């Protein structure tokens, strides 16, 4: 399709404006994390790493970071196992209600976070009689992390087909050997990409966490929310927000690079 120069300039301007709306505020957060001015006047009055040092020594930040890492890693591990199993079941087998099951697996990531949070809170406390804590937050995070892994593995299985696995079994390999030597190597990058995306999704989640994390526990996003309007904590909040930006961006970037290797059969 041929576009006039005027149309191209308008589209380019719209693209630049859209990206600016998204990324300029993030850049401001990163700059304020090294801004020597505690009022964050613009332009920054100087450069300092003092706030980063304070954040590294802040016990509340360190506890929140540990909680976020524990919840993210555990939820990702659960999602990798259950997401892969669900993907195999729905991609390789036909059974009654298959489409319904597929919808139920994907639905948690489409529901509003507050609805999921309230539902899980009621389920844990009222139905199951479980006190809220790190375990309940991990389970809650896993419900939507599974979707990310599931989607990545299903997409890879569709591209793979079943010819190589059938050839492996024709040559005498059993199911376990075929999975270990043929299927898993081809799925490895999809699983890694799904795991990275799941971890990033869990690490910066706040709404569901608010309803499912026990009293006395904080993740980094919750710590930011609790300290956002405390003037003495403002510089440290910017540092923690900058860390969240980096921690969330790197897994997404790596996952995108890994997802681009499908042409090579998923080999790392």
UniProtKB/TrEMBL annotation:
Renumbered to this chain, the signal peptide range is none
The family database entries (Gene3D superfamilies) matched by this protein are listed as:
MetI-like
Note whether Nucleotide-binding occurs among the keywords: no
Q: Which InterPro entries match?
A: Bact_Polyamine_Transport (IPR051789), MetI-like (IPR000515), MetI-like_sf (IPR035906)
Ranges that cross the membrane: 60-89, 101-120, 132-154, 190-216, 236-255
Q: Which family does it belong to?
A: Belongs to the binding-protein-dependent transport system permease family. CysTW subfamily.
Protein name, UniProt field: ABC transporter permease
Question: From what organism does this protein derive?
Answer: Amycolatopsis thermalba
């Amino acid at each position: 399709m041929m576009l006039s120069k005027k149309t191209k300039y308008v589209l380019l301007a719209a693209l630049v404006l859209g990206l600016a709306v998204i990324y300029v505020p993030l850049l401001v957060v990163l700059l304020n994390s090294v801004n020597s001015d505690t009022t964050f006047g613009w332009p920054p009055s100087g450069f300092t790493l003092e706030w980063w040092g304070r954040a590294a020594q802040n016990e509340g930040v360190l506890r929140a970071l540990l909680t976020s890492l524990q919840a993210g890693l555990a939820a990702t591990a659960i999602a990798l196992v259950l997401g892969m199993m669900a993907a195999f079941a729905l991609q390789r087998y036909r059974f009654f209600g298959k489409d319904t099951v597929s919808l139920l697996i994907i639905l948690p990531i489409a529901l509003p976070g507050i609805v999921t949070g309230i539902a899980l809170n009621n389920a844990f406390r009222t139905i199951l009689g479980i006190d809220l804590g790190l375990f309940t937050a991990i389970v809650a995070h896993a419900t939507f992390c599974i979707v990310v892994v599931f989607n990545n593995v299903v997409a890879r299985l569709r591209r793979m087909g079943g010819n190589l696995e059938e050839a492996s079994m024709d040559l005498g390999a059993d199911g376990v050997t075929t999975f270990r030597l043929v299927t898993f190597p081809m799925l490895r990058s999809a699983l890694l990409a799904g795991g990275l995306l799941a971890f990033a999704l869990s690490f910066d989640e706040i709404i569901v966490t608010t309803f499912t994390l026990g009293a006395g526990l904080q993740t980094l996003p919750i710590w930011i929310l609790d300290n956002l309007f405390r003037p003495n904590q403002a510089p440290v909040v910017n540092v923690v927000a900058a860390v969240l930006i980096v921690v969330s961006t790197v897994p997404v970037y790596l996952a995108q690079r890994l997802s681009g290797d499908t042409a090579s059969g998923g080999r790392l």
